[in-house]
Amino acid sequence: MIIKSSTSLRNNYGAISRLAHEKQEPIYLTKNGEGDLVVMSIDAFERREETHRLRSKLEAVEAAYLAGAPTYTHEQVFEEVEEIFRAAEKNQFGLS
């Protein structure tokens, strides 16, 4: 965990920015000895947001599974996709 004072951000923005980009983790800023803000690089923030989106999707899938939603093996999914491709190919080339 990286902790810096808000004064260091004000007086040395460049160094804090470099640190955020190098470490790729949040920097906690304090004001009067108390936690105040968190800063991080945009790349680190976007990765964190993507992780949250994926986690939410996984939680939704798990909830559906636990609620009894149907499940499929990867073989069943691949066969279904193959069927879709075969049908599209027939339509594209006028095959019957």
- Helix proportion of residues, in percent? 55-70%
Reading the helices and strands in chain order gives EHHEEHH
Tell the overall outline.
Answer: elongated
Distance between the termini: 64 Å
For the biggest β-sheet, the strand order reads 1-2-3
Q: Give the overall pLDDT as a whole number.
A: 94
Beta-strand content estimate: 15-25%
| SS class | alpha+beta
Total strand segments: 3
* Low-pLDDT residue intervals, each spanning 5 or more residues: none
Question: Radius of gyration, Cα only, in angstroms?
Answer: 25 Å
Question: So how many helices?
Answer: 4
Q: Report on the biggest sheet.
A: 3 strands, mixed
Lay out the secondary structure.
Blueprint: E1 2-5, H1 6-11, H2 13-23, E2 27-31, E3 34-39, H3 42-66, H4 74-93
Parallel strand pairs: 1-2
Antiparallel strand pairs: 2-3
Record keyword descriptors for this entry:
single chain, 96 residues, alpha+beta, three-stranded mixed β-sheet, 65% helix, elongated
Give an account of the 3D structure:
With 96 residues, the chain is an alpha+beta fold. It is built from 4 helices and 3 strands. It has a 3-stranded mixed sheet with strand order 1-2-3. It is elongated. The mean pLDDT is 94.
Summary, kept brief:
This protein is an alpha+beta fold and 96 residues long. It is built from four helices and three strands; from the N terminus they run βααββαα.
